[in-house]
Amino acid sequence: MKSLELLSEYSNYLEEQKLEGKKIIAFMSHDSIPEELIDAAGFIPLRLIFAGNDDLMNASHDYLPPSTCSFAQSCIGYFARKPNLYKFLELVDYILLSNHCVSDICVSEIISDNFNVERLNLYVPYTRNESAIKYYKIELENLRKELENIIGHEIPDQKIKESIDKYNLFKKKLAEIEKLEISGSQKLEIFQKAILFGPKILNEIEKLIQKNREITSNDSQTESNNKKVIFTGCSIFLGDYLMDLIEESGGEIVFFNTWIGHNYISQIYSDKILNSTDDPIDLFLYRFKTNIYGDHSVPDSLDNEISYLETFINEYQKENGEKLAVINHVIKFCDHFSLFQSTLKERLQNKGIQVLNLERDYSRANRGQLSTRIEAFMEMI
Amino acid sequence: MKAVGLDIGSLATKLVLLDENKKMIDWKVNRSTYDFKRVGGDLFKDILKEHNLSRSDVFVMSTGYGRNTVDFANDRITEITAHAKGVQYFYPDARSVIDIGGQDSKAIVMSSKTGNVIDFQMNDKCAAGTGRFLEVMSHALEVPINEIGTLALKSNSPASISSTCTVFAESEVISLFAQGSSKIDIAAGINKSIARRVAGMAKRIGVEPLLVFCGGVAKNIAVKEYLETELGFEIVRPEYPQLTGALGAALISFDNHK
After folding, report:
1. A229 forms bridges with which residues in the sheet?
2. Closest partner residue to A369 among B81, B118, B122, by Cβ?
3. Chain B residue closest to A376 (CA)?
4. Nearest to A69 by CA among A253, A339, A259, A290
């Protein structure tokens, strides 16, 4: 219900923006997309973060075989299903193709070719060496030119810098959400809303943090018997029932190590870095270079992720006296996470960390089976 | 107090009654049908009546796919935890379990120190590697499901069933017939196909002896033998392999009410 309200609110927001003459750029990718550049050019960046269902996946099968990434199927489904489940997607002007994964490329091309949505491109290198940084810079400059051609004038450096400052402040505020004593589902709702609306809801986030602090300081602490877990792998998108299943099974997610969650806010610039250059493109390059793990397939990303999870779990245990378990969420046929799931589980288990690899698609038919797997894991830990 | 474990699976509902000393004194099995709640409720009423018990004389723990439909249960537990507990009733040294039920298959590894579950793996929503696969194939072969195992073991040259999807595998069986394969060899291929799939899943979590094979499909002798070949060690099977989930649930019920 809450996700429906949020979607309705978002739909109204986009309609208002369109009436004001703004154009919308949608994209599937998460890492390495310079949303500040899109914002500075006066566009609305729209991340496709909507969970699928059987209907949406089926609607995609005129374009994709069923054995492709469930999220990719759903993204096609958003546009292919008639009547459209998310009417606001009809307002999208451009789709930004990036090579986050093979599915990202295919889906963006299919949407562009079949649903009258113009395509922009941003190809991102998979490595992090000097050549890759040079190449990423060329791609950023090309995207900037493309955007400038559309709006008919240059995007001043100063404007991009202001946008970077704005998003950075927003991400810093969002980082405080992680520390709040609220449920995992509440945190997730805030992250989802933040990623949809961006810095526009900064005040709302500030008020929420303030309100929560007041409630926490007035309430006596009650000990929860829920099993505390870290959630990693594929994000939980808007409208997904997974979070309900985890909480109904007695699980409590204390940390979202996913794009909708910590990965997004981990890309905060320090003041020192922000003030180190007047060229905003340098800041994008810095972020690209230092983003050594995350959703994107980069060399040694698994090593970095395992090391990060282990450190977090150890620190949490020192601070709270509890050992966290890990739920690794793998959307079916999502190559990056599917290929790594066994190794991730084995290596974490060797360090004494319990892991549930939760591979699934968006079908409602396997809700019971999913529920058994999650409940059994909670019983096990 | 006595304890009842009620395991409502997708195909069969199983009930076990334990006395105060945790001794199994009775059990019942019935088809689950579409009405889990009614079938579970009827078995429960019957067992109470036959043993002259009232509801307040027993703890009730539900488990299995339909565990949430049992509104008279004191508590519920997943079949993974229940099977792990149940097999240790018969085999205290058990370290692993393979449970192949009507709708899903599971591999479970237990701690050698505590006997608690330390890892598990379940099949996906796909029916391959489950009792349902066997049911569809026995229909295609026109062999009763309880005979397909013994028939398979007569084969010297099992047919190769490569499809992992039940629907495609059924087509493959028909095409094997068309190519002149015998019913015996196809039956062997079908049983081998289940064993291969489940063993692959079990190996991923490092199952080891003593491994207990339970669930309705454990009654099939061919699947057991082929599983042993795939895993490379002997496995054991309780006398009533279908009952370990219900039994485990009843035992956990005692533990919860200590």
Report:
1. A253, A325
2. B122
3. B78
4. A339
Which two tokens mark B164?
């992992």
Select from A349, A368, A379 the Cβ nearest to the Cβ of B81: A379
State the CATH number of the domain containing residue B256.
3.30.420.40
What residues make up the domain containing B150? 92-237
C-alpha span between B124 and A369 (Å, rounded): 8
The count of other CB atoms within 10 Å of the CB of residue A218 is: 7
Tokens 């309200």 correspond to A5
Do B230 and B245 have their domain in common? Answer: no
Q: Tens-of-pLDDT digits for all 381 residues of chain A? A: 577 788 888 999 999 999 999 999 999 877 789 999 999 999 999 999 988 888 889 889 999 888 889 999 998 998 888 877 777 888 999 999 988 888 889 999 999 999 989 999 999 988 888 999 999 999 999 999 999 999 999 999 999 999 999 999 999 999 999 888 889 999 999 999 999 999 999 999 999 888 888 776 666 556 678 899 999 999 999 989 999 999 999 999 999 999 899 988 888 999 999 999 989 999 999 999 888 665 566 777 888 888 989 999 999 999 999 889 999 999 988 888 888 888 999 999 999 999 999 999 888 888 888 999 999 999 999
Residue of A363, A366, A375 with shortest CB distance to B78: A375
The nearest CA of chain A is from the CA of B53 a distance in Å of 31
